[in-house]
Specification:
heterodimer, A: 793 residues, alpha+beta, nine-stranded mixed β-sheet, B: 353 residues, mainly beta, AttH-like fold, 13-stranded antiparallel β-sheet, ten-stranded antiparallel β-sheet
């Protein structure tokens, strides 16, 4: 019986290949969008993890000797024995290489951070032989020939920046000889509860601003994930529609099978099996398609990452289990969600009552009411989350409730609007048009919901990305007011550089900083020199009057937005430790709290800290940078040109836009496809409704024209409704999710141009979708229309 | 590193304190091949003060102190201070290229929290080490230092990111030697280590915990052990018990689990005056009664322990079931309570779970 039952069930798909196509395509596209986005995310994360700069400790604070001398091994040991968790680094140029390969020797046993030192079943991530007597030089493949003469085993690492070598401190010391003193100590972010104060001979130097930019990529990934999820929701609506339709159309078949004795359990099992197979097939197709999407977008993303980490990220995509498994899971899960309602109806279907197939009555009045109730509940929940929720989860829950709630409202709102239009219409024809449109609504509901979500998602994400760009570039302009940022290796070198800069028409702005704890959390305190570039540019959000004069006078402190939010501080409040909060400034991309006090106040409080970081204001930054590099032995990341940093940040956003735009088109295409399929399905059933109108004198061309007009009307209405929803979505992303995830809120900017362009795209998708069904209608042979009358049911 | 997270790199040749993954080298590599290293010899007696200090020609060694503490309000605490030495070659060299690697573990166990910290250092530069006379053992700022003759009186301290302690210890009894005058056999094939203990310390001091400082007193047990290849190839893990009974007697016993042959057990009975009786394989028996999910694995936290020859039949229960040492090489180590034929307190170490 099972075999025959299955044959009967499957015969439906044979007779309705279009429906099968809908189901499989919808699911495949949904999975493709999701897994494509996930592939990009997974690849990018893997790239971060691989970025070997973490091994060199590029973003970790350092301890250096105040007098600029190398640190001796005995001094290092003394600091360790005083409780300071520091790790020595030797760096120097390798004699006999041209142009001079820079060798970095690290001490893996004490290296801070888990990047190099992740405990796990497989041990730790350092290459074989790194700690052996012979040593191991890890270098870019291009540098291997130059390193061969040194007789140390070599390991090629394509992720390593050209011209740099990483090795163990013992090996580095051996190769560098006399020059191989400990230049600095990496300071572990987590220090023990008890430790002695830092002797005056040393000073702590914080990492440069550059790394804040890296943190911003997290935001980029969060956005992509949100986008992937929304795309998937769009796809699920298509699947839901297709599954629901297939169930409704097969009610008669089900009843017959049941009447012939097939147990309900068996029937359900067969249906689940059938859907499971479809989901697996569609999921596999979707993952393959997702790979194609990701591979097409990856170069843009990779270029962004390459920019961030030097030439260390490959643009190649690997088939990572993380994302193809998650893609498969979401395909199966999505089908299950879409099928549950249909299966539930099947269970409750009366076995014997005679009932016409209710094809295309999926959205009967009863279920519309149910949807309204669901919508009210969901929107209520969204409101509760917005008001009382806290945490990232609440943010995402708010997002989900808002979107599904709004989508559920759509049928009722459209129906009401069409009814109004019908009442307002005075011609017979226009009255028929509106009534007929309303009559078709149930069949199009799912497709229109998909369109609503697609458009809302696009508006939301575009608004967010654009707001992000506008804000962040503006912020960079303000915050990076100096032309060059310099970090000297040691205070002594800083002194040399300062005297070198005298008489070069350069304003030097020292940036001294010290780690501290406020409210139990790590924070940084900065001493800032009073300078016009700060007064004119610093991104102050809220401040007391004459804030800069008062700051210069040592009257209080500025704090960043993160700290203000965390500690609920406002200008005029008292900071822990007694400083008055003079102002609050925005500090995007930074998770920790920051406090700024005047240079003089900082020097009084931290006499042992001598600044090694400087902002340089000059008219000819490129020439100055070159002069500094020629004159001093600066580390690779010691000098940052503000213009390069900005150009590079802008490039990141351009790439982000390229990715966002591509995803816009893709999601709208999916929604367009949903409309097309719904219309095609409707078309065959609508002949009995259209034939009388044709018989009354309307030409087939007229009818086709009305079909197009209807598609445009419905798409326009849906598009209009999507605008407020999209803006609400953007607001949630900017003001709730971002704040929860990163601790800072982005202002929201509206981009009418973007919305118009998206509206245009939506109309275009709807028009293209309606084109084929309309053309088919226009060419329907008259005898087919006539048959309707001879075949009256 | 270019995606190739190479297995068990860290001390490639040098050190085997890594989870070995497969059982081929036993837990933490203690079964690894030890070519060129010295081996325990029945005829070479332990000698002091020399043997309080390090033995760089042996591959592995530890100074292992555990303590059961009590605050004035009756709350029980557990404390651990451990220094491991592991050598890649049987020599000590000055400078960064020393093949000796040191690892420190410290922990404080409260009834509902378990604080852990770990330190690593290489030898040759003085960052970590041990000296026989006057005795001291240290890694970074953690240290155990003699304040009297031998190791009869010690001061000891350690700190992690969220805890610290500072203790003084004084021995109330003699040193005791396990196995045959300290020659402790670990497998049926005769692998062995040198093993002596000071199980009679009185300890007092201050714990610094997130809730504030706590003054504590109690008793502590120091284990000293060194060897080059103490475990057989197929001995992959162990359960080790140290027990201080209320009547003043002590009992040390362990089970070594073997994938090929049966388990191997050994025990030392210590009378209140320090007289020892060594028990060969089979006399001591430990059987898990109850397990608990700890750090994603099933770990026995209640045991039935017996030594019929001494009429010992007790239930050993973990004070805090979650005393997992989430360190590079991870294991369970925490204070236990003893009930049954004898009552008392002790410490339990379980590896390989």
């Amino acid at each position: 019986m099972t075999r025959h039952g299955l044959a009967v069930l499957l015969s439906h798909w044979r007779r309705n290949p279009l429906q099968l196509l809908t189901l499989v395509t919808g699911l495949a596209l949904a999975t493709a969008l999701w897994s494509g986005v996930q592939a990009i995310n997974a690849e990018a994360r893997a790239s971060y993890a691989q970025a070997s700069d973490t091994l060199d400790g590029g973003d970790i604070a350092r301890v250096v000797r105040t007098d600029g001398q190398d640190i001796t091994t005995a001094e290092y040991v003394a600091l360790r024995r005083a409780g300071w968790l520091v790790s020595p680094v030797i760096e120097g140029r390798l004699d006999g290489t041209d142009p001079g390969i820079r060798i970095t020797g690290i001490e893996p046993l004490t290296l801070p951070g888990r990047g190099a030192f992740e405990p796990g079943e497989e041990g730790i991530a350092l290459p074989d032989g790194f700690l052996s007597d012979a040593g191991l030089l890890v270098a870019n493949p291009g540098d291997l020939p130059a390193l061969e003469p040194f007789g140390v085993p070599l390991l090629a690492d394509p992720d390593r920046r050209a011209g740099t070598v990483l090795t163990d401190i013992a090996t580095a010391g051996r190769l560098l000889g006399e020059d191989g003193g400990i230049g600095w100590l990496l300071l572990a972010p987590e220090q023990p509860l008890i430790r002695a104060g830092l002797p005056a001979a040393y000073t702590v130097s914080e990492p440069l601003v550059q790394n804040d930019v890296a943190r911003l990529t997290r935001s980029f990934h969060l956005n992509l994930t949100a986008f992937g999820l929304l795309s998937f929701a769009v796809g699920i609506f298509i699947v839901y529609g297709a599954v629901g339709l297939a169930f409704e159309q097969r009610r008669g078949v089900f009843r017959t099978l049941r009447a012939m004795g097939m147990p309900l359990r068996r029937l359900m099992l067969l249906l689940v099996l059938e859907l499971g197979v479809f989901a697996l097939l569609a999921g596999a197709a979707g993952i393959a398609l997702g790979y194609v999407i990701a591979a097409a977008l990856m170069p843009d993303v990779a270029a962004t990452l390459r920019g961030l980490y030097g030439a260390e990220v490959t643009g190649q995509l690997q088939l990572r289990p993380v994302w193809w498994l998650s893609g498969m899971a979401i395909a199966l899960g999505g089908t299950a969600v879409a099928a549950v309602a249909a299966l539930w109806r099947l269970v409750r279907m009366p076995l014997l009552s005679f009932n016409h197939p209710r094809a295309m009555r999926v959205q009967a009045d009863g279920s519309a009411r149910l949807m309204l109730v669901a919508a009210v509940v969901l929107l209520g929940a969204a409101a509760l989350f917005a008001v009382f929720g806290s945490g990232l989860f609440a943010g995402f829950a708010l997002l989900a409730c808002l979107l599904t709630g709004a989508a559920f409202c759509l049928p009722l709102v459209l129906s009401k609007v069409l009814k109004l239009a019908e009442c307002a219409a005075n011609g017979v024809l226009s009255q028929w048009f509106w009534a007929d449109t309303r009559q078709q609504l149930p069949g199009l509901t799912m497709a229109l919901m998909a369109l609503l979500l697609a458009m809302a998602a696009n508006i939301g994400v575009s608004t967010m990305v654009s707001s992000f760009r506008l804000t962040f570039t503006g912020y960079l302009d303000q915050r990076l007011s100096a032309d060059l940022y310099l970090r000297a290796g040691t205070p002594a070198q800083a002194g040399d550089i300062l005297s070198f800069l005298e008489g070069r028409e350069t304003d030097v702005l020292p940036i001294a900083s010290a780690p501290t704890r406020i409210g139990g959390l790590p924070a940084e305190i900065f001493g800032l020199r009073d300078h016009v570039s700060y007064r004119e540019n610093w991104p102050v959000l809220d401040a007391v009057p004459a804030v800069w004069d008062r700051l210069a006078a040592g009257d209080g402190a500025l704090i960043n937005e993160q700290m203000a939010r965390r500690e609920a501080l406002r200008p005029g409040d008292m900071l822990q430790g007694g400083d008055t909060v003079l102002g609050i400034y925005s500090d995007y991309g930074n998770a920790a709290g920051q406090v700024i006090i005047s240079e003089a106040l900082f020097a009084t409080r931290y006499p042992e800290i001598r600044p090694v970081q400087f902002g340089l204001v000059t008219d000819a930054p490129a020439a100055l940078a070159k002069a500094l590099q020629d004159r001093f032995d600066l580390q690779a990341d010691a000098l940052i040109n503000q213009r390069d940093l900005k150009a590079f940040s802008l490039e990141i956003f351009e790439r982000t836009f390229a990715v966002t735009a591509a995803l816009n088109v893709l999601t709208l295409s999916v929604a367009g496809l949903a409309i097309l399929i719904s219309l095609l399905t409707l078309a065959t059933m609508r002949l009995p409704q259209l034939a009388p109108v044709w018989a009354l004198g309307l030409t087939r061309r007229d009818l086709a024209g009305f079909e197009m007009l209807r598609a445009v009307c419905l798409a326009t209405l849906t598009g209009l409704l999507a605008v407020p929803l999209g803006l609400a979505l953007a607001w949630v992303l900017l003001a709730v999710v971002n704040v929860e995830a990163f601790g800072w809120r982005l202002p929201m900017y509206l981009f009418a141009g973007d919305m118009l362009r998206l509206g245009g795209l939506t109309l275009l998708a709807a028009l293209l979708a309606a084109l084929w069904p309309a053309a088919r209608l226009a060419r329907t042979p008259p005898h087919k229309l006539l048959k309707v009358f001879s075949n009256e049911r | 590193m270019n995606g190739d997270r190479i297995k068990a790199f860290l001390f490639s040749v040098t050190l085997a304190i890594l989870p070995a993954g497969a059982g081929a080298q036993g837990f933490a590599g203690l079964g690894a091949d030890a070519t060129g290293f010295a081996f325990p010899d029945r005829d070479v007696q332990i000698e002091f003060p020399r043997d309080h200090g390090p033995h760089p020609d042996f591959r592995i060694e530890w100074w292992y102190l555990t303590a059961n503490l009590q605050a004035a309000d009756g709350t029980g605490y557990g404390l651990q201070w451990t220094l491991f030495r592991s050598a890649g070659a049987p020599v000590e060299k000055e400078g960064w290229s020393s093949p000796q690697v040191w690892m420190g573990h410290s922990a404080v166990t409260t009834p509902d929290r378990h604080f852990v910290a770990e330190r690593l250092a290489r030898g040759g530069i003085g960052q970590a080490g041990a000296e026989a006379e006057p005795f001291q053992a240290w890694i970074d700022d953690w240290e155990m230092r003699a304040t009297g003759a031998g190791i009869d009186a010690l001061s000891m301290r350690a700190t992690g990111p969220d805890f610290a302690y500072d203790m003084t210890l004084s021995a109330q009894g003699p040193l005791v030697f396990h196995g045959e005058n300290g020659y402790s056999v670990k497998s049926a094939s005769g692998r062995a280590s040198y093993y002596y203990s000071q199980p009679f310390y009185e300890i007092a001091g201050t714990l610094q915990l997130p809730g504030g400082d706590v003054a504590v007193t109690g008793s502590a047990w120091l284990d000293r052990e060194w060897a080059s290849q103490p475990l057989g190839d197929t001995q992959i893990s162990w359960d080790w018990f140290s027990m201080a009974f209320d009547d003043g007697a002590r009992l040390m016993g362990f089970t070594l689990h073997d994938t090929a042959e049966g388990d191997y057990t050994a025990a030392t009975w210590i009378d209140p005056d320090g007289t020892t009786t060594a028990y060969a394989d089979g006399a001591f028996n430990a059987r898990p009664l109850e397990t608990e999910e700890v750090a994603g694995r099933e770990v026995p936290v209640v045991w039935q322990v017996s030594l019929p020859d001494r009429a010992v039949d007790v239930t050993v229960t973990a004070m805090n079931r979650q005393a997992w040492m989430d360190t590079l090489v991870s294991y369970w180590e925490g204070p236990v309570r003893i009930t049954g034929s004898h009552t008392g307190r002790g410490y339990l170490e379980m590896t390989g779970y």
